[in-house]
Every structure is written in structure tokens, then in C-alpha cells.
Specification:
The protein is α+β, with helices and mostly antiparallel strands. It is built from 7 helices and 13 strands.
Length: about 250
């Protein structure tokens, strides 16, 4: 068993593992491995020359210190039940600490995973609120912005003690979502037929007008709030847990 960064020859195996674990199509995989993936932000377990487990992270920051947003944690079906996820996660924590990261944050894809990650030293740290909304009669003024401007404006709208997600994090998110700014809000809107807004910051009452401006009859919004446990935090230093983490790759 070997735990390390992936080699160039293992990229196709990583793609196959991602597809097996999460079921995403070739178009998404092409976007991710072209725009979101970096070999030095990936750790994997190799057994007998085959990728058995892998995880990835994006760089973010909190209170001026670097955090790793872990995602895409997966174990190949043939190797499940052997504790590889724990081995890989613990190795990654040690490696991240060596690299100077102050903590790691992740968003469990399912409620049952909160317990699993809790056994690995993670604790719930942030929550969100979610609601469905119908379009209003009056559209709000909306302008499309790029990832760089969203990141800059997001610093103004971010709740206190929130995690900054910028750079490659937002550049990849822009492949999945469109960013918009209004007079008193920011919104990230997933591309596709269903209108899902994974982050609305600022004026929550703007939701019906946003849908009207986007010509959508109905949408599902995620906002800062206390309704639903969302992200978990594992400290790698004395940095306290953040209180808001918003953009996850659902």
C-alpha cells in the first residue's frame, strides 16, 4: 500500500474511480480534470499498482490562515470495508499540517457521513438555511460577473467568521454555475434546467426578483442560516472553527 500524490499515468484511473463513486458524466469529468484538478491537491492510495482510494482539495482561507476544502473522497468498490478512507484521510491531515495548513473543512454528501467523519476528528462547524421560492412579479437588476469579481465582492457580503473561497476554487465553480451581483446581494446559480442557487449572500428577500430576472418559475436557494448542518471542520492548529462555509460542489 502506498499513499502519495498521483502520478501522470494514474489520471485515467482517478477519472474511473470518480465516475464509479459519483456517477458524473464525461463532460463533468473533462471539466474537473482540466480546470479543477491539480496533482499537488490530491492524495491517493495505490495497492498492487491500482488506485484504491483518492481525495482532493481546494485552497481557501480563514482569518488569514490557509484551509483545505476536502472533497471527492472515494474508495473503489473492490477495496471498500478495509478502512482505506480513514487511512487516506489521516495521512492527508498529517501532510496538510506539514504543508502549513491550519485546518481542513469538508461537506458530507449524506447525513450518515457526519458520523463517519466525526470518528476521523471532524466536528460540525457551519450550517445553512434552504428554501424553495417562486418567481415574483418584478425582476431585480442583475449583472453577470466573473469568478474574480465574485470573489472580491464576496468579501463584502460574507458573514462574519466566514471562509474565503477564491482562486481555483471559484474558477472551477464558474464551470458549474453563473455568478451574479445585484445592488445588495450576490448569487451563484447552477447551470441547467433546474434552478439551484447554492449561495445567496446579502438580501434574502431578493430571491423572487432574482428568479424573475432569470426567467425561472421556481428555484431552490441556500443561504447562511441555522437550519441545516452543513460543513465539518478538523483543526490542524489552534485556529478555531469557521462559522460559515458556503460553496460546496453538490
Amino acid at each position: 500500500m502506498k499513499v502519495d500524490y498521483p502520478s501522470p499515468e494514474q489520471i485515467d484511473s482517478l477519472r474511473s474511480l470518480w465516475q464509479e463513486a459519483f456517477g458524473d458524466d464525461d463532460a463533468f469529468l473533462e471539466q474537473f480534470f482540466t480546470c479543477g484538478f491539480a496533482p499537488d491537491r490530491c492524495r491517493c492510495i495505490t495497492i498492487d499498482g491500482e488506485i484504491a482510494a483518492a481525495l482532493y482539495w481546494f485552497d481557501c482561507s480563514y482569518q488569514g490562515k490557509p484551509l483545505a476544502y476536502l472533497y471527492g473522497v472515494a474508495t473503489a468498490k473492490a477495496h471498500r470495508g478495509k478502512g482505506l478512507c480513514r487511512i487516506l484521510t489521516e495521512n492527508t491531515h498529517s501532510h496538510l499540517k506539514y504543508l502549513g495548513y491550519a485546518g481542513a473543512v469538508l461537506v458530507p454528501a449524506e447525513e450518515r457521513l457526519f458520523e463517519m467523519y466525526g470518528k476521523m476528528g471532524y466536528a460540525p462547524c457551519t450550517s445553512v438555511s434552504e428554501f424553495d421560492c417562486h418567481a415574483g412579479d418584478t425582476p431585480v437588476a442583475l449583472r453577470s460577473i466573473d469568478a474574480g469579481e465574485y470573489g472580491r465582492l464576496r468579501r463584502e457580503f460574507l458573514p462574519e467568521n466566514g471562509v474565503l473561497q477564491e482562486g481555483d476554487n471559484l474558477n472551477f465553480m464558474q464551470k458549474l454555475a453563473q455568478f451574479y451581483a445585484g445592488e445588495d446581494f450576490l448569487a451563484a446559480v447552477y447551470r441547467g434546467e433546474k434552478c439551484f442557487i447554492p449561495e445567496l449572500l446579502g438580501n434574502m428577500d431578493a430571491a423572487p426578483g432574482i428568479l424573475a430576472a432569470l426567467h425561472k418559475n421556481k428555484g431552490h436557494f441556500r443561504t447562511p442560516g441555522a437550519e441545516k448542518p452543513f460543513a465539518m471542520y478538523h483543526p490542524l492548529s489552534d485556529l478555531p472553527a469557521p462559522e460559515y462555509f458556503g460553496l460546496a460542489f453538490d
